[in-house]
Amino acid sequence: MTPQDVRRLIEERGIRTVRVVFNDNTNVARARNIPAEAFLEDVIEHGVQYPSAMLSVDTSANFVLEAGGGWAGGYGSWLLRPDLETFTILPWAPGTARVIADLYDLDGNPVEIAPRRILSRVVEELRREGFTARAACEFEFYVFRRLAPDGYEPSWTGLNCYAEVKQAQVDDILNAISVGLNAIGLGIEAANTEYGPGQFEISMKHQPAVRAADHAMYYKTSVKELMQQKGYLATFMTKPLTGRSGSGSHLHHSLYRLDGTNAFYDPDAPDGLSDIARHFIAGELAHARAICALANPTINSYKRLRPYTFAPANVSWGYENRMCMIRVPKARGQGTHLENRLPGADNNAYHLLAAVLAAGLDGIRRKLEPPAPVVDRDAYADASLPPLPQSLEEALDALNRDEVLVEMLGADFVRSYTALKNSELRRFRDHVTDWEVNEYAELF
Q: What's the whole-number average pLDDT of the chain?
C-alpha cells in the first residue's frame, strides 16, 4: 500500500480521522487520533510524536520508574511511524481508519523495547536461518451484558458450546463480530460459543508472524469496540468468572523454508514431522517456563493453568492431545503446524510470538530433541512431567533466568517488562479482596 493508495482510500471513503495505534508492553492498545488532512500531509512521511513516558506505565497507568529511564532521562518524545500495509478502514466507525505504527526515537532509531520491534527482530533471526513463520491466535473471550457498576450478566447461559439453539440466542454477537472482522481483512474461519456462560471463540486464518500479531491486536480492540456499540462488555481477561472456564489464546504456528515449503513436514518420517519440527518442539518445551511470563502476563492468568480444564498444567506435548502444552494437529503437508495451548487470552501477541519463535529457533540451532510425547496416558496425572509456573512471580523469575530468551528478546525489554509486572504484583499484594473479607471478617 503506497501513500497514493492511502490518499485515494481516504478521499473515496470520506475518512476524516486516522487512529495511529500500537500495543504497549502492558498490552494496552494506545492511539493518537489524527485528522485525515494532517495524516496525509505530514504523518505518513514524518510520523507523529508520542511521549516515551507512556511505555513506563503499568496497567493502572501508574508510572514505573524502573521500566524506563526514570526522571533523570527526561522522558523525551518518540515517533510513531505508520506502517501503511496495516491501513484499515473501520466500517463500524464512520469516517475512521486505523493504522499500526512502529516506534522510533527522534534520531530515527527503532525503539528496541517496543513489542512489534521485538517480534520483528526474532523474525529476522529466523530468516537468517532460512525460515519464515506463519501463525494464528485462537482467542476465547467473554461477552457480558452491562448491569450495575459492580456486576455483569453473561450474554448467554449454560455450558453447551456449539449448541445451535444457544448460538441462535446470540446471533447478534456472532454475526456482528464475524462480519466486522472479515470486513477489515482478518480472515475469520469459524465462530461459536465456548464452554463457559457468555464465552465465545472466533478463529482466524494463518498469517506471516508480524501480520498475525497485528491481526491479533486488531481482533481484540475491534471485538471490544463492536460489543461496546451494542451495549455489551467484551473481555479477554483470562479468568473473569470463578469456577468457570478460563479464556485461552491457543497459538497455531508453523515454519516455512524460503522456497515456500513447510519446514515442519517430512513425508518419510513415521509421524510426518521433520527434524526441524522436533527441534522446534524441544525448544518450546525447554523454554516453556520462561515463555509463560509472556504467554500469561497477568496475575489472573494463572487461575486458568489447572489440571482437567483443557488448559495445560505441565510441560508436555502430544499428537492431537488437548491436555498437553503443545498439541500436534493431524494435518500434514503444507498444513503441518503446532498448537501451543499455554497462552491466556490476555497476552500481547507480539511478545508471545517473539518468545515462542525465539525458543523454537534455539531448539533448531542446538538440535534439541524433545522427550517422548504423551501417548495413552493422562498428561495431568503424570508426575514426571515438569510443572508450569503457578504464579506470575514464578514465571517472571524463570524468564529472567533464561539467558537465551533474555538475549533474543533484549535485556532492556526484559528489565522493563519485569518492572511493569512487579508494579502490578505490589499493588495486588496490598489489595484486600472480597474473598478475604468473606472468609475471615466474621471469624476473627
A: 95
